[in-house]
Amino acid sequence: MIILDGGMGQELVTRAGGATDMWSLQALMDAPEMVRAVHDEFFAAGAEIATTNTYMTLPDRLEPKGHGDLLEPLTHKACELAVQARDAHGSGRVAGSMGPMGFSYQPDKAPPADEAAEVYARMAQLHLPYVDLHLLETMSSVDQAKGGLMGADVTGKPVWVALSVDDADGTKLRSGEPLENVIPVLEQFQPEAVLLNCSMPEAVTQGLPILAAYDGLLGAYANGFTGIHAEFNSIHATADILEKRSDLGPEAYLAFAKDWAKAGARIIGGCCEVGPAHIRALRQAFGES
Fold first, then answer.
1. Distance CA 157, CA 195 (A)
2. Domain boundaries defined on the chain
3. Cα dist. 169→40, 66, 185, 203 in Å?
4. Is 144 helix (H, G, I), strand (E, B) or coil?
5. Tens-digit pLDDT profile for residues 225-272
6. Residue 113 CA: distances (Å) to CA of 142, 144, 162, 222
């Protein structure tokens, strides 16, 4: 079993004492030592992967806020912090995170795949000197996944794609499309791994058997939200309107993870609101990879 890290963004929000509309990038700009500390704690808990704090380092996130000039320096900084943590730990890999264009969970706001691919190709090239693999996160429609895979494919590095499903029906992407509709795109681009992420664990459990039809590594990392608030729908929204579940401590999360392993998952970690204690429980249960 490969153990991923947990949710960087919400860990940073918790430690900073509040959220801004820059979310995880705020810490990268104001307190990079906090980002490094989170990486260190996830490695200490048993994670084998450091996911770079680059989910939001995309032009359509930074330019509207007047920070377009920070795209490259913030990307380099985030990647360097993950590499430093990996090297200090003495083992592990770095996954270069690339989040969804438009906004999380809102695939209708994303550009068409051909346009998105140009941006993802640029980001993949920026990540290239630092990362061991590219991780496309929270892809919420077939076209969104296709754009990410087209772009990330340019470097020759392994690509993992993480899809986000409907919290009420894990057999559907957040776009409403059947999850099985993404299988032909996976077969076309042949990512090394396909995962479900940033959805409620119950929905992940529903969706994983569908993805087992793809001949690649299967994985899962759920979030710990009660659901996605309707007002969390633009780059100006702040994560503090998303409510944390009170029934998803490390042991409860582990129970879901064991079901994912039974369904064929070989990569398991956590997304938003899943912290070092959860990762430690996963490592203790699944042992060394």
1. 17
2. 2-286
3. 35, 38, 21, 6
4. helix
5. 555 535 444 444 345 545 666 789 999 999 999 999 999 999 999 998
6. 9, 6, 16, 25
The pair of three-digit structure tokens given for residue 176, joined into one six-digit string: 């409403």
- Does domain 2-286 match CATH 3.30.450.20? no
Q: How many CB atoms lie within 10 A of CB 37?
A: 17
Residues 6+ apart with CB under 8 A from 127: 52, 54, 75, 79, 96, 98, 134, 155
* Helices and strands per DSSP (H, E), number in the chain: 11, 10
CA dihedral 59, 271, 14, 282 (to 10 degrees): -150
What is the rounded CA–CA span in Å between residue 124 and residue 237? 26
263-266 CB contacts, 8 Å cutoff, 24+ apart: 263/205, 263/208, 263/209, 263/212, 263/218, 264/208, 264/209, 264/212, 264/218, 265/208, 265/218, 265/219, 265/220, 266/1, 266/2, 266/217, 266/218, 266/219
Task: Kindly list the distances between the CA atom of residue 1 and the CA atoms of 198, 253, 285, in Å, as whole numbers in the listed order.
Answer: 20, 16, 10
Cβ atoms of 159 and 191 within 8 Å: the answer is yes
Q: Do the beta carbons of residue 4 and residue 221 sit within 8 Å?
A: yes
Q: Residues 216-229: what's their mean pLDDT?
A: 78
What integer pLDDT is reported at residue 79 of this predicted model?
98
- Cα torsion 49, 181, 231, 243 to 10°: value is -50
How many residues make up the chain in this entry?
289
Where does the pLDDT of residue 13 fall: very low under 50, low under 70, confident under 90, or very high at 90 and above? Answer: confident
pLDDT in tens, 118-152: 999 999 999 999 999 999 999 999 999 999 999 99
Q: Which residues pair with 178 in a beta bridge?
A: 172
Average pLDDT over residues 268-286: 95
The pTM for the full model equals 0.91
